[in-house]
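Q: Sequence in, structure out?
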Amino acid sequence: MRSLDDPMLLREIIMDHYEYPRNRELTQEAGYKRVNMDSETCIDNIDIQAKIENGIIEDIRFDGEACAICTASTSIMSELLAGKSIKDARYIIEQYMNMIYEKDYDEEILEEAIAFKNTHKQANRIKCATLGWNGLVKLIEESEE
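A: Exactly. Output:
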């Protein structure tokens, strides 16, 4: 098994989620909240949808135009956080953001999201790697109002 410090492995994870994004399809089904997220520094302009009921994120979807980093990051986020409680999701999101911004983080819970651990080395990619995650935070906050 290859190490999570292997840059080729990290790149493979990102490229797999870019070429075959998970949950990249919006739905008209009732019960979904939706937010548009865009970037002034990249082509990224995506819609994030989430179905949140009884404190559980039941489903996450997205679609739109996005670069490889944004697409892969949002795809991984949609798989990692679907089915989680809001409390658990918030903790995972906090750990992901800590990783992106070079603070202490728990890599055990990030699963494939660990692929973005070197994003801080390209500051112009931070927005791309966090856009979908920030969209989900908005939807969680909206669901709690």
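The CA atoms of residues 55 and 86 lie 6 Å apart.
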